[in-house]
């Protein structure tokens, strides 16, 4: 019951201001976010890379309200690419970007987001790394996949994300697998209506397995984004049955979540990549992590109560 309330709060400016100003929040947020500044992100990436883990970095920000903000998001990503190259991390760390941070929701937003993401993908490619387009709520799926398709023609390593809670995703997986793309499969983190998405967790999981099978049997590079132990076991079994070598797919998990399992999978010879968010605009990301797991909310509430 709490999940939908928290996801609604994730989009409320009033609650954003109150939570962001609470003195205790930052120390709690630090569990999920690598830091507020670029050097924090680079240091976290270097630490993970030293332990044999790949990284995908997210400069936090979403739902920008004007073009200048969208351009600042683009510039922050360009600075990130430069910093990764300087630190010698471009081989280990890629970028994850949200097109709403590049203006997708503004008037003319599809073209604006496309224009803003292009130089980031160009710079990343020149530096020897890649970009994955995060997926946001279902109203953005067509636009994001269209921009991904266009980028693929010049930058074939550009990644896409699909969400197993959406009814449409099996079909999207067929198209992406045939295109040979890098595809991250996740359950989905937004509040979606019953007209477009499964509402029961078991249906979301069953859809995840169907999508997984399509991607693992296809021509692309599947990126299995989940912390769910059952889905990790299913992935390993399916990959073995379909003859996918361990370097022909990867697992991905979020920074600060199931870290021991991240290390265990890497030590076991699996490719493991950690999604590392950083920046000052952590509110929406943080609220989605609370919504996923009531235990996280209890942790947050306890730390408020002990101040
Ligand atoms: P589930 O939520 O069922 O969790 C399984 C187990 O994992 C839990 O029992 C618990 O042990 C642990 N766990 C899960 N979430 C936790 C949390 N927040 N805190 C502590 N423990 C937790 N979504 C989206 O809509 N668009 C996107 O682009 C992305 N991108 C993305 C990248 C990567 C690398 C990951 C791992 C996830 C995303 N997501 C996402 C989020 C995704 O949609 C989903 O909300 C979360 O991964 C949680 O779902 P699980 O598959 O982990 O399963």
Automatic annotation (TrEMBL):
Its cofactor is FAD. Residues 45-300 form the Proline dehydrogenase domain. Pfam families: Pro_dh (PF01619). SUPFAM superfamilies: FAD-linked oxidoreductase. It catalyses: L-proline + a quinone = (S)-1-pyrroline-5-carboxylate + a quinol + H(+). Keywords: FAD, Flavoprotein, Nucleotide-binding, Oxidoreductase, Proline metabolism. Its EC number is 1.5.5.2. Pathway: Amino-acid degradation; L-proline degradation into L-glutamate; L-glutamate from L-proline: step 1/2. PANTHER family: PROLINE DEHYDROGENASE 1, MITOCHONDRIAL, PROLINE OXIDASE. This is proline dehydrogenase.
């Amino acid at each position: 019951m709490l999940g939908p309330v928290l996801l609604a709060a994730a989009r409320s400016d009033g609650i954003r201001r109150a939570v962001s100003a609470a003195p205790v929040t930052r120390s709690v947020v630090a569990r999920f976010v690598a830091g507020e500044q670029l050097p924090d992100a680079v240091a976290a990436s270097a630490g993970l890379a030293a332990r044999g883990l790949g990284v995908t970095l997210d400069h936090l920000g979403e739902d920008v309200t004007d073009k200048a903000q969208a351009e600042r998001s683009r510039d922050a990503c360009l600075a990130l690419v430069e910093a990764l190259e300087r630190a010698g991390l471009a081989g280990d760390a890629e970028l994850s970007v949200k097109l709403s941070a590049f203006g997708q929701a503004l008037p003319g937003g599809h073209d604006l987001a496309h224009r803003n993401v292009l130089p980031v993908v160009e710079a990343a490619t020149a530096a020897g790394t890649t970009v994955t387009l995060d997926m946001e709520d279902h109203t953005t799926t067509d636009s994001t996949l269209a921009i991904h398709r266009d980028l693929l023609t010049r930058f074939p390593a550009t990644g896409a994300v699909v969400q197993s809670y959406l009814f449409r995703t099996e079909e999207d997986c067929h198209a992406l697998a045939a295109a040979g793309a890098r595809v991250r499969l996740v359950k989905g983190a937004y509040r979606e209506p019953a007209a477009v998405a499964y509402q029961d967790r078991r249906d979301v999981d069953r859809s995840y397995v169907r999508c997984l099978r399509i991607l693992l049997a296809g021509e692309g590079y599947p990126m299995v984004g989940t912390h769910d132990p059952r889905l990790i076991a299913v992935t390993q079994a399916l990959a073995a049955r379909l003859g996918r070598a361990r370097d022909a797919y990867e697992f991905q998990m979020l920074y600060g979540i199931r870290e021991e399992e991240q290390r265990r999978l890497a030590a076991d010879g699996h490719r493991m990549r950690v999604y590392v968010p950083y920046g000052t605009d952590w509110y929406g990301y943080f609220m989605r992590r609370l919504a996923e797991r009531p235990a996280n909310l209890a942790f947050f509430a306890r730390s408020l109560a002990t101040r």
